[in-house]
Amino acid sequence: MPTVAIAPSILSADFGRLAEEIIAVEEAGADLIHIDVMDGHFVPNITIGPLIVEAVKKVAKTPLDVHLMIANPGQYIDAFADAGANWITVHTEAGPHPHRLVGQIRARGCRPGVVLNPATPLAALDYLLDEVDLVMLMSVNPGFGGQKFIESSLRKIAALRRTASECGLQLDIEVDGGISPATIARIAAAGANIFVAGSAVYGSDDYRATITSLRLRAEAAIAGKEEAI
Ligand code: DX5
Ligand code: ZN
What we know:
By secondary structure, the chain is α/β, with parallel strands linked by helices. 37% of the residues lie in helices and 18% in strands.
């Protein structure tokens, strides 16, 4: 069974109490901390830079999963690696050289991944799949937390898992956007194993109960699917 990981996105955390909010989700069972970096160009919102990642690194015990939603990502990879990013994901839509960016990330000792927006076809991965450790599929249009899961993502996840299996790749498939206890089972059954959840975790009263529920539902969906094969 692919390893299930739950990655709370701090985009929905209380930024006035950011350190506490990170410790709280880690104590509640988070596997990764997902950090949404937005620049107001690639997406219509501005959020976090390397300075905040550096501050997060001082309190986080789990790996930092840094999602770059910025123009010219190549210009900032070193800064985010220096700040303590462990995983760095870049959008294929952010420029003409995703292959080069993946190499840049790996050269800095970080785990590289590429991200596709909801309307970007999987063909964008044809000559990248061998190079990356993970692929993240956006299941909302990037820019904001709390949006509704886009249903067509399910067949995209399933098609990517099929391709990865056919190529003999143990690919991590991460999904970002609209994940909650109500949607996660179908996303896991389709083939994802890493789940970003912002508003579902930080908007809940009990972080541990929510993260546990997300994990159990994902694991049950994956196990059920394997039994059926
Ligand atoms: C959207 C971000 C997501 C976002 C997810 O651009 O990449 O990580 O925080 O938020 P929810 O889980 O609320 O859809
Ligand atoms: Zn994200």
